[in-house]
Write a structure and sequence with these properties.
The structure is a homodimer. Chain A is an alpha/beta fold. Chain A has three domains: 9-206 and 369-450, Ribonuclease Z/Hydroxyacylglutathione hydrolase-like (Metallo-beta-lactamase, Chain A, 4-Layer Sandwich), CATH 3.60.15; 213-360, 3-Layer(aba) Sandwich (Rossmann fold), CATH 3.40.50; 468-556, Roll (Ubiquitin-like (UB roll)), CATH 3.10.20. Chain A is built from 15 helices and 26 strands.
Chain lengths: 557, 557
């Protein structure tokens, strides 16, 4: 490190680059640090049994005395979900918009961390001093209320973190993005040092539609309905929920809120003033049948086909209070998070089978994205006119394409940096470059265990999931003479009743292998185990081309 | 069954309705039967470890003496892949287009069934007599060469099975769909009794693009390339391959064929006259480095991100002969089969990381679908003008929407039938109705085992995949006194080194539970086992909220 600490700004992404999810960055200047967001990711298909993935905090823990605070941009799980896990280790204040902190509060309570946490609300348009850092909170639009971009001021110029954003010129809550502030930063002295911007929708040309576009669709959907309306969306999308509330009011329907996260989100948003719903509008989901169908709308979870969510239960026919019928009009007002397509498809199939009308993204205009498309990304670049550019929030292909887009918009290639998790990126007056690499990656959360499941465990789960396990139990005496067994027990392998012959023959192979050992006077456990394992493995593979896990249990008495 | 066998036609789908894949139908008239297609499906996410899914053949096997033949429409796996499994049980001739039978031949050889099989080629535009049935083979367009719709003539009128199709007015091989024949059937006496039509793309408005649209893209891609061109597509898409061949010839490049299925398909297509490639065009993939990069194009497998396919190996950096470099232009000329999105995304990320330029469906016009969109589906309906309509090739939502589309185009609702697998659908002069239900469903193929993996095995694999297994081994004497153990062995559960305390405490719980049993004089195995299992299950769940499989192994000596 040949640049003095106060002549350069360093930013280290600990998540959210080269992946979708668990957004987290550490910004460092003159030996003080600020954490920007700390979110979770959903497990990949090969992370079997894992509930959540959080960033590796090692770098933060090692530097905890340097950290002045955590700043959050909005309340989505991929930006705040890992904060409780972080606050179990470090004690620093968290700054953020009111709605984000409202949602965070609920999670901190679940983790029994609320008492020792300090949450400080900062409104959009305001600045806050955190140690040496002045941080501006700048209104942008997104699929959750109260999203802010950040400008962290440093002597080398402000670092702008665009967060997840789009530019919605007709937002539902009339809170337009603060184009003026972004422009002011862009024309300031010193100008913007670096822009970190959202790559999620970089593959999409043009502009992302306004949230208000949904209003027209909802109007048509509500107007044409003879029966109940059931609408599923993300529980955090308060603008969408507001529009459903408004449509229900306009069409003189009662509205039931279904699903735990929808109830929580609805309540939090109402309490904090982000949602405006008349008292007499809301009914309990258990009371829907007390009203004529055409007077009922239901707002529900399950837009991703999650197995336990309310809409999924309705589709499956095991919802306690709602039986889907053919006069129902059901709207899935969301797009599929990659990996969920099949679950959503199955929910739609089941709802159709129950005779309901189903409207979803592929066949009706019932969703707009919360992320900027190409023209908005260029607008963000040109408003803030940064010296350096780092694409964030995307898999590698998104970051790469966003870097290319920036270059088309005039950003020099050498001022663009495509980051990997753990890169310590240094921005000086002359250049951007990687000066170091710190530990970073996935920490797996499985139940209450954090980090106790790793590659070996996952590899075993993979093997078990593909072909199950065969356990061979036998007892030998000190001379290696078989006293009982070998007994073969299988789980997840084959139907035993259909495969008696296979198991009998397998048992014989193990017996033969053991006899050979006895003849040769082999009594070492490790050799016996290996012999049993290999004889079985080869037999099973040759016979039915499967590779179950094989576990010999040899008892010596 | 109150309609005489010769006064109605019966059709029983054994796959391909309410699902994508394993298309198969049995058509029956006057006690004779014809099988139409017999394909495989890919396993669902919850069918862990399964390689393939084939239709339940029970109904066919029970009626095998009535079957006059198998008719196939085209050579895709979801239409022919289960035929080898069927021919292991029954011996009937297979009729089909030359290319489909060419591909089938390869598979029958692998199953050692070629000698006892009879394959009879029928050209598009021709008819064949199979027992009492006259079957017309009618040219349609699709993403594999030589696809035919079928008209099976019966005294009540022809039954038209549209197969997978689109109407391509500018096909690459100049083999246009036989609109005249379809129209002739539609205007005949008796008119078409029933139409079975492809619902895959029913969600798409308008017309599906022509395969020739790709030519323009390929021209642009080949023209602008300074280095190698690497193109991945489905190996059965001979029209696409022909266009790549043509582009390579036009641009004076050599073409290497990479990946086993691509080589096989290329060879078969060439041999059977479906592919026209000059001899001096093709080079061995090992020889690519002998030519300047700008003279090399590579046609490869891996368009779905399949782990072992050639392009995936290149992306991962473990291909034997091809190292991807930044002058390479790589084209993924395919769309994702649902469920493969993440694999393809990962391949693209890795290729970008190697510096290559990557073009794929989301950002470039490099693929068109092989299935009809809404306007073509209506055209098929109006050309054939059937009395009854059965949507096929789709999940329930597709079938439902296709039925609605047909009704918009004038088909009476009561003449539309949305089928489930196993429905015996009877078409008489007066009505279409379900008269019976036969056994049908998924038979799982896992390695060489067919049908030996069922729900219990899959549920075990699911449990094992989510939290692994804990095995408790102990030895007791006749009085239930513990002689050795309990020893706890885990796989796929936790890192033992990180969780020594947990395992120690768990062992103690088991010991305590056993002591309680001993005190109470309990020596029954089943009770002991349940006690061990429950004590461990409760402890583990309370402690870390996981539910591993728990398997007590109690040896009595």
């Amino acid at each position: 490190m040949n640049v003095k600490n106060n002549e350069a700004v360093r930013v280290t992404p600990l998540g959210g680059v080269g992946e979708i999810g668990k957004n987290m960055m550490v910004l460092e200047y003159d030996d003080r640090m600020l954490i920007i967001d700390s979110g979770v990711a959903f497990p990949e298909d090969d992370q079997l049994g894992i509930d959540l993935v959080i960033p590796e905090f090692d770098y933060v823990l090692k530097n905890q005395e340097k950290i002045d605070g955590i700043v959050v941009t909005h309340g989505h799980q991929d930006h705040i979900g890992a904060i409780p896990y972080l606050l179990e280790h470090i004690s620093v204040p968290v700054y953020g918009p009111k709605f984000a902190l409202g949602l965070l509060e609920g999670q901190l309570k679940e983790h029994n961390l609320m008492e020792k946490s300090t949450l400080k609300v900062v409104s959009a348009g305001k600045s806050v001093q955190i140690g040496q850092f002045t941080v501006d909170f700048i209104r942008v639009n997104h699929s959750i209320s109260d999203t802010c971009a950040l400008a962290v001021h440093t002597p080398l110029g402000p670092v702008v973190y665009a967060s997840d954003f789009k530019f919605d010129h007709t937002p539902v809550d009339d809170e337009k993005a603060d184009l003026q502030k972004l422009a002011e930063l862009g024309s300031g002295h010193p100008g913007v040092l670096a822009l970190f911007s959202d790559s999620t929708n970089v593959e999409r040309e043009g502009y992302t539609g306004s949230e208000k576009d949904i209003q027209e669709s909802l109007e048509r959907i509500f107007s044409g309905a003879d029966g109940r309306i059931i609408l599923a969306t993300f529980s955090s999308n308060i603008h969408r929920i507001q529009q459903v509330v408004d449509a229900a009011v306009r069409h003189n329907k009662k509205l039931a809120i279904d699903g735990r996260s929808m109830e929580n989100s609805f309540e939090t948003a109402k309490k904090l003033g982000y949602l405006d719903a008349p008292e007499n509008l809301i009914i309990d989901v258990r009371d829907c049948s007390n009203y004529p169908d055409e007077k009922v709308a239901i707002l529900t979870t399950g837009s991703q086909g999650e197995p336990m969510a309310a809409l999924t239960r309705m589709a499956r026919g095991d919802h306690y209070h709602i039986n889907v019928k053919d006069s129902d009009r059901i709207i899935i007002s969301a797009s599929a998070i990659p990996g969920n397509e099949k679950f959503i498809g199955e929910t739609i199939n089941q709802l159709y089978r129950r005779g309901a009308e189903v409207l979803y993204e592929e066949i009706a205009d019932v969703h707009v994205s919360g992320h900027a498309s190409q023209e908005e990304l260029k607008l963000m670049l040109n408003l803030t006119d940064p010296k350096y550019f780092v694409p964030t929030h995307g898999e590698y292909r998104h970051l790469y394409q966003h870097a290319q887009l920036a270059q088309e918009a005039g950003m020099p290639e050498e001022n663009t940096y495509i980051a990997d998790i753990g890169d310590v990126i240094e921005f000086s007056r002359d250049e951007v470059r990687k000066i170091d690499e710190v530990q970073g990656g996935d920490v797996l959360v499985d139940g209450l265990g954090i980090g106790d499941v790793g590659n070996i465990v996952l590899r075993d789960r993979q093997t078990l999931s593909e072909a199950g396990i065969i356990i061979v139990v036998l007892t030998i005496d000190q001379n290696g003479t078989l006293l009982s067994g070998p007994d073969i027990i299988t789980r997840g392998f084959v139907y035993i009743r259909e495969s008696e012959e296979l198991i009998e023959e397998a048992t014989k192979r193990v017996e033969d292998a053991l006899k050979d050992c006895e003849k040769e006077g082999i009594t070492e456990w490790s050799v016996l185990k290996k012999t049993v394992k290999d004889s079985l493995k080869n037999y099973i593979f040759n016979k039915i081309k499967r590779k179950p896990m094989i576990l010999p249990i040899i008892m010596q008495v």
